[in-house]
Amino acid sequence: MKVLLTGATGTIGSAVLKALLAEGDEVTALVRSPESAATVTALGATPLLGTMTDAELVATAAAASDGVIHVASPGDETSAATEATFVDAVLGALAGTSIPFVTTGGVWVFGNGADLTEQSPWNPPALTAWRGDVEARVRASNVHTTIIAPALVYGPGGTGIPSLLLPDADGNVRLVGDGHQHWSTVHVDDLADLYVLALKNAADDGYYLGSSGQCPTVLEIAEATAHGATIVPETIEESQGRFGVYFADALLLDQQASGAAARHDLGWAPHRASLISELQTRV
How many CB atoms lie within 10 A of CB 147? Predict the structure, then answer.
């Protein structure tokens, strides 16, 4: 397949790029800079210089593809407008075609839950409340779409958000809150497999939680990273002061999800090392 990919130099996107190339697909990667263009070229993709708000460029590239995977996000106050512009451009270009469009949500939109599924009601923290409008546009379109809602993503050595629980300069591991909350997790390479499966096999209007089913508490994660360091709990107010209210409130969510639907529907089989195993073996 000829695949248009965003975010190819990021944590998730680079893993998706690797997975697509391993399948023999031809990947055009939307990148913002010559440096990023050189990076994706070295990995085996064809760079397309532009941004998510270059609507005409995005629409032309999407229409020329056999499929689109979108994992990039500004991750700041421009996210809502930027995502809407990109999604509208792709939906407009693919309307009336069978070209699949796989885009990205996030597990945080469901709020707290001990057994989250795709049918769980939304209760997003302020940080991700903007996703509702964008995802509604995707699901209401006549385009062949799938939304992947990743859990907290980690890579080899426990990188990503879990790295917030590595020992600090004082030799302490600071919890987020008191550490009782569960974080639903997924290895980045397992998640990349899910994106590829969704692109090639998902039915129209698919929606999947990308969670491995491994949902340790923050305290359990901290115990795996500590290696003798002192673990220090925080009050909610202290965590909000350290990370900002919006980000801290998302990190304080207590979430558990199995990812069973993706296993059942798409044959997804996450098998990489768990976050705890990665952290316990980290040097």
Answer: 24
